[in-house]
Design brief:
The protein is of the alpha/beta class. It is about 35% helix and about 25% strand. A hairpin with a 2-residue loop joins strand 4 and strand 5. It is built from 8 helices and 10 strands. Helix 3 crosses helix 4, helix 3 packs parallel to helix 5 (about 150-160) and helix 5 runs parallel beside helix 6. The protein has one domain: P-loop containing nucleotide triphosphate hydrolases (Rossmann fold, 3-Layer(aba) Sandwich). It is globular, with a radius of gyration of 18 Å. The structure holds adenosine-5'-diphosphate (ADP) and magnesium ion. Adenosine-5'-diphosphate binds near residues 16, 46, 47 and 50.
């Protein structure tokens, strides 16, 4: 586990100025995301986890420092280059599904799939159909988002995030708005994709979600303050209470050691 470094940050800094007051959110983050890992970013609310995710994924521009994707400098790249990178190489899942309200669930998945370079429309439809089925959405594929449940919408958002076979999926509290059953389902889908090699970087403040990862990072006061490795999540043991409890206990003990 933990292949080649795919995404790296060096001395990454980000400050916001609001009403003349400067807030320093990232204070020199050094980080490497390795291919194939399910990396989980934890930390207190308001500490800057989302900001870090956005700066790493080219959605926001850092104030200082560098981000490299496969060795190539992406911080400071032009907006059209970043848009291309996000469309071709990155996938995103947020707390809310953010589906396009007048497209069906299937269309929400297939339309971004048409953007993938070197792929025909026919191939894009095939990939989207496969994902719709894998996410258990066949019966609601022709529904509009407002005709589907919150859990279905979020599963659709996961399908959309991976339709272009991204190098990295960034997930920012992807289960934050879901009940426990839907959370487990969405986490199971992300974990299943990771088991097939999909690199995932997920923000969560929830230990139950965090234990799906194999590398846990703790972010506080502007930088990564701690790190814990876990064996890759074994989906076959998802219903094994002792297995889940043991991982939760390890993660909780680690967080306590950081005075979480
Ligand atoms: N666009 C923005 N303008 C000004 N301040 C912001 C902006 N985005 C985030 N912040 C501030 O940066 C800090 C970190 O926010 P965020 O990254 O959303 O934290 P987290 O995801 O850990 O809850 C907060 O104090 C927040 O108010
Ligand atoms: Mg956040």
């Amino acid at each position: 586990m933990g292949g080649e470094p795919i995404l790296s940050a060096a001395r990454l800094a980000k400050s916001y100025v609001t009403d003349g007051v400067q807030t320093h959110v990232l204070l020199g983050v050094d980080l490497e995301i390795r291919e194939g890992d399910f990396t989980v970013l934890m930390g207190p609310s308001g500490s800057g986890k989302s900001t870090l995710l956005y700066c790493l994924s080219g959605m926001d521009a850092p104030t200082a420092g560098e981000v490299r994707f496969r060795g190539k400098l992406i911080s400071g790249a032009k907006e059209n280059e970043l848009a291309e990178l996000r469309a071709q190489s990155f996938g995103f899942v947020f707390q809310a599904a953010h589906l396009v309200s007048d497209l069906t669930l299937f269309e929400n998945v297939v339309v971004p799939g048409y953007l993938k370079r070197g792929r025909s429309a026919h191939e894009a439809r095939g990939v989207a159909e496969g994902l719709i089925s894998r996410m258990g959405l066949e019966e609601v594929a022709a529904h509009l988002p407002n005709q589907s449940s919150g859990g279905q919408q979020q599963r659709c958002a996961v399908a959309r995030a991976v339709v272009n076979r991204p190098d990295i999926v960034f997930a920012d509290e992807p289960t934050g708005a879901l009940n426990q059953a839907n959370s487990r389902e969405v986490l199971g889908l992300l974990g299943g994709l990771n088991a097939e090699g999909q690199t995932v970087l997920m923000v969560t403040h929830d230990v139950k979600s965090a234990i799906r990862g194999n590398r846990l990072l703790y972010f506080e006061d502007g930088a990564i303050r701690g790190e814990m490795a876990l064996p890759a999540w074994d989906a076959a043991r998802a219903e094994d209470a002792a297995y889940v409890r043991d991982r939760e206990a390890q993660a909780t003990a680690w967080l306590s050691s950081l005075a979480w």
